[in-house]
Input
Amino acid sequence: MGKNMIDITDLTASQRELIKEMIAEFKRMNQK
Output
């Protein structure tokens, strides 16, 4: 893992969920 990668283990559960939602939304936008 590179230093520029987000260290998921350092995040709280709520932050992980928020990031998952952001990634999902980003993927949906890219499909259009």
About this structure: The CA atoms of residues 1 and 7 lie 9 Å apart.
